[in-house]
Amino acid sequence: MTQQQFVIVGGGLAGATAAEQLRESGFDGQIHLFAAEGHNPYIRPPLSKGYLAGGEGRDSIFVHPESWYREHEIVLATGQTATALGDHTLTLDSGREVPFDRLLLATGATPRRLDLPASDARGIHYLRTVEDSESLRAELEPGGRNIVFVGAGWIGLELAAAARTFGNTVTVVGPESVPLAGPLGEELGTMFQHLHESQGVTFRLNTQVTGFEEAQGRLAAVVTDGVNAIDDVIPADLVVVGIGAIPDIALAESAGLEVDNGILVDAHLATSATDVFAAGDVANAYHPAVRQRMRNEHWANAIAGGKVAARAMLGEDAVLDDIPYFYTDQYDLGMEYSGYPPLTKDAHIVYRGDRDKREFVAFWVASGRVVAGMNVNVWDVNDQVQDLIRSGRTVDEAQLSDTSVALDAL
Ligand SMILES: Cc1cc2nc3c(=O)[nH]c(=O)nc-3n(C[C@H](O)[C@H](O)[C@H](O)COP(=O)(O)OP(=O)(O)OC[C@H]3O[C@@H](n4cnc5c(N)ncnc54)[C@H](O)[C@@H]3O)c2cc1C
């Protein structure tokens, strides 16, 4: 009998985790992993945190050491982009055709780009790859520069923290009235705003960027629709744009797979095409707990999705039903968030701990049940938070907010 051949497109965390799970589950056929970037698969969170700040070295960002691929007989081809997907055949940019029995699309996402006057000026940066992070570090590290962050989301704020730590002047511009109001709501978004303001960051909120100004072939200023003529133009030596990411669906779309805000997959991560699966940032997956599709651009989702996709490729009845999880580090604030964003819309927040000291757990409670939780500078509670969410049990809010009542007891 000929060996089965499984192919993974995309050398990020989801792709590398799927390869690992295939071997862990006993798959002894061939595994080919094609990665467009010229690196072995690596993780991205450190690119805006420890790796950017210089505390973590390059070796620490790789999912597996070099030798791991050989030891597990994974044929890893870096610097190779898949350009077409046909019936059980993948075509690479070299023209090579690769047959497959099952295929995983783990192509991730790319930063949403601005298309405004002078938005290609030298000095405007985006962050997705290790090269982006290294060139940003070279710009931020000397300090003393005027840096404007376009976008008041997670990436913008993490980078603002790094830029301040290096001693730069930092302005964050965004159209929302409160940073992170979308994912966290106004109250907690304001807490993040105050944290940054206490570190010297200036916010220009309710503000749209309308273009850029150049001088001597380099970025000189950010132009906004500010409230008066003086505020319209913000001098800038450097701009970093963090306005979200777009799922990399080109290959799937050209192959006629169903796509809508990512590649549409069921709870087993199967796409609309036979023997083709998708995982990680690119997958818009049906989640049984919320009975709708969600696309989660998070590290934990890439791991969980990579594992489920691998098991589903092997014919197991694997389902992606993990509670979405996310973390961030900014200055001395560390937090973890677990929960179902679609269910927090009608929820109110119950706090447990000391909000003034930024040491607390926030619970989003809807119809008496915890649907999300965020622990801020409080550690080793995320498992309990997830247990509470998963249990679906009605909670006593007085007990929930009472630190003398163990979370386990709830
Ligand atoms: C700066 C930064 C900070 C982050 N911080 C956090 C954090 O603190 N917490 C958190 O939970 N998440 C964070 N994330 C998100 C997290 O990194 C992503 O969710 C995760 O990387 C998704 O993994 P993935 O494998 O799906 O996609 P990716 O990591 O994007 O990998 C996909 C790979 O596929 C390749 N590819 C695309 N098309 C092709 C093709 N046709 N052929 C071959 N290869 C292809 C791409 O080049 C890419 O290398 C951060 C992301 C960034 C960029």
Structural description of this entry:
With 410 residues, the protein is an alpha/beta fold. Helices cover 24% and strands 30% of the residues. It has a five-stranded parallel beta sheet with strand order 3-2-1-7-19. Strands 9-16-10-11-12 form a five-stranded parallel beta sheet, covered by helices on one side. It is globular. The protein starts with a strand and ends in a 9-residue tail after the last helix. The site of flavin-adenine dinucleotide has 36 residues, from helix 1, strand 2, helix 9 and strand 22.
Question: Percent of residues in beta strands?
Answer: 25-35%
Bound molecules: flavin-adenine dinucleotide
Q: Give the fraction of residues assigned to helices.
A: 10-25%
- Shape estimate: globular
- Given the helix and strand composition, which structural class is it? alpha/beta
Number of strands: 26
Number of helical segments? 11
Gyration radius, to the nearest Å? Answer: 22 Å
What's the end-to-end separation, in Å? 55 Å
Mean pLDDT: 95
Low-confidence stretches: none
Set out the fold topology.
Elements: E1 5-9, H1 13-24, E2 30-35, H2 50-53, H3 66-71, E3 74-78, E4 82-86, E5 89-92, E6 97-99, E7 102-105, E8 109-111, E9 124-125, H4 130-140, E10 146-150, H5 154-165, E11 169-173, H6 181-184, H7 186-198, E12 202-204, E13 209-215, E14 218-224, E15 233-235, E16 238-241, E17 245-247, H8 250-254, E18 263-265, E19 276-278, E20 283-287, E21 292-294, H9 299-313, E22 325-330, E23 333-339, E24 348-354, E25 359-366, E26 369-376, H10 382-391, H11 397-401
Parallel strand pairs: 1-2, 1-7, 2-3, 7-19, 9-16, 10-11, 10-16, 11-12, 18-20
Antiparallel strand pairs: 4-5, 5-6, 8-17, 13-14, 14-15, 20-21, 22-23, 23-26, 24-25, 25-26
This protein binds flavin-adenine dinucleotide (FAD).
